[in-house]
Design brief:
By secondary structure, this protein is α+β, with helices and mostly antiparallel strands. The protein has 3 domains: about 120 residues, Immunoglobulin-like, CATH 2.60.40.1180; about 260 residues, Glycosidases (TIM Barrel), CATH 3.20.20; about 130 residues, Sandwich (Jelly Rolls). It is built from 9 helices and 36 strands. Strand 10 and strand 11 form a beta hairpin. Bound molecules: alpha-L-arabinofuranose. This is non-reducing end alpha-L-arabinofuranosidase. It comes from Mucilaginibacter pocheonensis.
Length: about 625
């Protein structure tokens, strides 16, 4: 193989490798959003879902669910509890597949309460382990006859995967309760009511170039009424209207119903997280069309204004200063500095004439007011390969900025498509490989695995993305997260339970590309041709102008080892010691798991460079990243 280290072919965008986030597979509620109480504000279709009335020692009382929708349409339900005995009456919450709590960690219990009678009803909160033992407790005495928030902290004496929370009420009287909540004190950046630190850390470790949010199909909704509306996802959490999650009824055999979006992880939190992990924010907004795989409901083009206004207001929210309405709101929410929004998606997985019609109106309105904002346009999934071509041609004619292509395909497709962008029109729109993942069985199959064969095929494909970095500016694997006990879609990048998480082999592929991204692609060739499948090998090379290194990425997809030699031209030479990181397994079915999180994970060592030649033994079924430091 030859590497021409002085012939820059393409600049690699800082955004090249990023993250796709969607609240699917309990990614947000029950996942990264650290709230431990499920149905905290009684807004599920069955308002007492996840709650159980508890009685002990002859305790008695009654619970009514009150609907105050005229007064509080965004948070209509609360419970009124008539405590009829001095003690022994209350309720418990099951959490999201239980509550994961850790020994010695502090938890904050809070609620909105209002005493209805002269006698103040007292709360005794108990955290109980799987065997029913009390592992943490606290008392709270609400005193006001108006709604007020109360909170108390306590520690857990044990680590338990599936704890439950009991709230006992004592002293005869009537009390109203809403937004009953339990959060760990230790969250990402220790923000109160924040995110699970271990999960966000996994995102930070990817060193992502962008964070796309909030999806995915939940942007669209099955019907327009349950589309994602960013304005309802910011500000006080008790004012964020809960809706049923678009993924609630999907694959019922895997996830029981009761999958709601509380929006505790809302747009402000998404922007903050993107900032925390150094990723450029990429919000995707509804373009007036519900999911075309479901109802395909859409608003008439004459009624698009509120949707467009949401997009314009979002840009002002992210970038405007405190003299603007939405910039002021961001400032009031504690973030005076702008979020530096540079791009915005108009629709997710939309297609057809109706989409183009709406896209044109959106794009004109956005570009008229904010010409520098790049619009990400949907081309969606394309099982037959026709939709991409059609939309690509249309969007090229419309001077679109970035096209969001999705591929959920077989490992073979990924291997066969490493040259996908080699002959792509260099003058047209840029490509965002916005959702992709090799499917071990079939798209939508619950039997899909995050196995090494799939991850290796993705690595081979990504060498092709990187080689064409002048066209492909962004790429993200999808979906991102999945709870091992509650998911609708496989494969997924990161799996977790209530306490732990692990990165899949696919995660490590993403990470190796991202942390070794480099700044400029240089040619790596075999007989003057790109290395894109000859003898089952795939490779790309780039310079990192910040660290003064040459970075080689090499995939051997075969079952035999390959002794390869790189002849490097156009360089003043390299330091003798290079680092080589290998991701490998002889077993294509190998997977990581909560028990064996590192079964397939990167291993680093050093190798010797001889002048301008580098000889490497590339193991079967392996992906290697080699970094050579300039002399
Ligand atoms: O990633 C899961 C789903 O796949 C996304 O919601 C959607 O955009 C795609 O069809």
């Amino acid at each position: 193989y030859t590497i021409a280290a002085n012939q820059v072919k393409a600049h690699i965008q800082p955004t090249m490798y990023g993250i796709f986030f969607e609240d699917i597979n309990m990614a947000a509620d029950g996942g990264v959003y650290a709230e431990l109480i499920k149905n905290r504000s009684f807004e599920f279709a069955m308002p007492l879902a996840a709650w159980k009335i508890q009685k002990k020692d002859g305790g008695t009382g009654a619970i009514e669910v009150i609907n105050r929708s005229a007064e509080r349409p965004e948070n209509p339900h609360y419970i009124k509890v008539n405590v009829k005995s001095d003690d022994g009456y209350g309720l418990s919450n099951e959490g999201f597949r239980g509550m994961g709590v850790k020994e010695g960690e502090e938890y904050s219990f809070s609620l909105f309460a209002k005493q209805e009678s002269d006698n103040n009803v007292k709360l005794s909160v108990e955290l109980r382990g799987t065997d029913g033992a009390i592992i943490g407790k606290a008392e709270l005495l609400p005193t006001d006859k108006e709604w007020k928030r109360y909170s108390v902290k306590f520690k857990s004496a044990a680590t338990v995967q599936k704890a439950q929370l009991y709230v006992w009420l004592s002293g005869k009287g009537i009390i109203d309760m809403d937004m009953i909540s339990l959060f760990p004190e230790h969250t990402w950046k220790n923000r109160p009511g924040g995110l699970r630190a271990d999960l966000v850390q996994k995102l930070a470790d990817l060193k992502p170039g962008f964070l796309r949010f909030p999806g995915g199909c939940i942007v669209e909704g099955r019907e327009l009424s349950n589309r994602y509306q960013w304005k309802k996802s910011i500000g006080d959490i008790d004012k964020r209207e809960n809706i049923i999650n678009r993924w609630n009824t999907e694959f019922k055999h895997r996830l029981t119903p009761d999958y709601y979006q509380t929006f505790g992880l809302g747009f402000m939190e998404y922007f903050l997280t993107a900032e925390d992990i150094g990723a450029s924010p990429l919000p995707i907004l509804n373009c007036g069309m519900a999911c075309q795989f479901n109802t395909a409901e859409m608003v008439s083009v004459n009624d698009l204004d509120p949707y467009i206004q949401d997009a314009l207001d979002l840009i002002e929210f992210a970038n405007g200063d405190a003299s603007t309405k939405w910039g002021k709101l961001r400032t009031d929410l504690g973030h005076p500095a702008p979020f530096n929004l540079k791009m915005l998606g108009v629709g997710n997985e939309q297609w057809g004439e109706q989409y183009i019609e709406r896209w044109k109106i959106f794009t004109k309105a956005i570009k008229d007011k904010y010409p520098s904002i790049k619009i990400v346009s949907s081309v969606g999934p394309d099982p037959d390969g026709e939709r991409f071509d059609l939309l690509n041609t249309t969007f090229r004619g419309l001077n679109a900025d970035i096209l969001d292509e999705h591929y959920y395909r077989s490992p073979k497709w990924f291997l066969d498509n490493a040259r996908r962008y080699d002959n792509y029109d260099r003058k047209g729109p840029k490509i965002f490989a916005g959702e992709y993942a090799a499917q071990s069985v079939a798209t939508g199959s619950p039997d899909n695995k995050n196995n090494w064969d799939c991850a290796l095929a993705e690595a081979a494909f990504i060498t092709g993305l990187e080689r064409n970095a002048d066209v492909v500016n962004m790429a993200s694997y999808a979906p991102l997260f999945a709870h091992v006990e509650g998911w609708q879609w496989t494969p997924d990048l990161i799996w977790f339970d209530n306490l732990k998480s692990y990165g899949t082999p696919n995660y490590y592929v993403q990470q190796l590309f991202s942390v070794n991204k480099g700044t400029d692609v240089v040619p790596l060739t075999q007989n003057n041709d790109a290395v894109a499948g000859q003898d089952g090998c795939y490779a790309t090379a780039c310079l990192d102008n910040n660290t003064h290194e040459l970075i080689i990425k090499f995939v051997n997809s075969t079952t035999s080892a390959q002794n390869v030699s790189f002849n490097i031209t156009g360089s003043a030479g390299y330091q003798k010691q290079a680092t080589i990181t290998t991701l490998q397994s002889d077993n294509g079915n190998a997977e990581n798991s909560l028990e064996k999180p590192n079964a397939v994970s990167p291993v680093q060592r050093t190798i010797t460079v001889n002048g301008h030649t580098l000889k490497v033994n590339i193991e079967p079924r392996s992906f290697k990243v080699i970094r050579l430091k300039n002399k």
